[in-house]
Amino acid sequence: MRAQFVLSEIGVGLRRNLTMTFAVVVSVALSLALFGGSLLMNDQVNTMKGYWYDKVNVSIFLCNKADAESDPNCAKGAVTDDQKGQIKTDLEKMSVVDSVTYESQDEAYKHYKEQFGDSPLASSLTPDQMQESYRIKLKDPEKYQVIATAFDGRDGVQSVQDQKGLLESLFGLLEGMNVAALAVMALMLVVALMLIVNTVRVSAFSRRRETGIMRLVGASGFYIQTPFIMEAAVAGLIGGILACAFLVVGRYFIIDNGLALSEKLNLINFIGWDAVLTKLPLILATSLLMPALAAFFALRKYLKV
Asked: Where is the ABC3 transporter permease C-terminal domain (predicted)?
């Protein structure tokens, strides 16, 4: 009988404050969708970092004859065979190095023509103008500085470059977008909490006669508060279900179909469905508990039921 009464009161409360309930549902759905999207964006950035950092190399570019005339780092002349041999030997002895690949001037010229063959500069270049280099794959991509310290400024070395640095700006942009999404999510969450508190207060005020009668007949404070708390929880849960739907549809539309980024951007390792599905229980739990707790404290602080 009590459970039936609570359920009937929840339905009455939701219908009486239909407009505010709709606002609560929408604000909770948007804020939790942004929250879930931020979590997925963080997973995507970490996935991309793990994928690309494992593939980037450190490159040691060696001096050629042209560099000896124009680059201060190559003032002692082009790299010699002895210097190249010593560099390779020292690299292979380093514990941070996984593998070392040598690229000759002819190979560098061939790769340049393949990548930039349409460039006006390509027609004027010759193989002897290209730089020989060692491409080093590190066991830990974060250990770039060990290579730079050991070889930067050495005779025959023009420069030491870390390809990981080229990716930092991209990951910085993605993380900045993630922070912006979290900021908007926090704002929407505050709006949702304010709407929940106001909805509970209005609902309690509109039923003050019923709650007064319940107090007179000896109903406990928790029993009186339960319908209001459940109203907020139900509205929040509906918003949470919508947020989950937004994430599932968004993942399907953006990555799999619609925009189909997984087909258009083959070089990016996108997060899978497992990453999305593991976030849904958290979103549903948050959508249920957050409004319920907000309603509980609102009733205690403001209505003194």
From this structure: 183-301
Instruction: Locate 244 and state its tokens.
Output: 């989950």
Report, as an integer, the average pLDDT of 40-69: 80
Question: In angstroms, rounded to a whole number, what is the distance separating the alpha carbons of residues 303 and 205?
Answer: 8
Instruction: Count H helices and E strands in the chain, helices first.
Output: 11, 4
C-alpha pair distances (Å), 97 with each of 77, 91, 125, 135, 168: 27, 7, 32, 10, 21
8 A C-beta contact, residue 73 and residue 159: yes
Is residue 74 within 8 Å of 185, Cβ to Cβ? no
Instruction: Measure the CA–CA gap between 135 and 99, rounded to whole angstroms.
Output: 8
Amino acid identity of residue 115, one-letter, is Q
pTM of the model: 0.66
Mean pLDDT, all residues of the chain: 80
- pLDDT tens per residue, range 76-103: 888 898 999 999 999 988 988 888 889 9
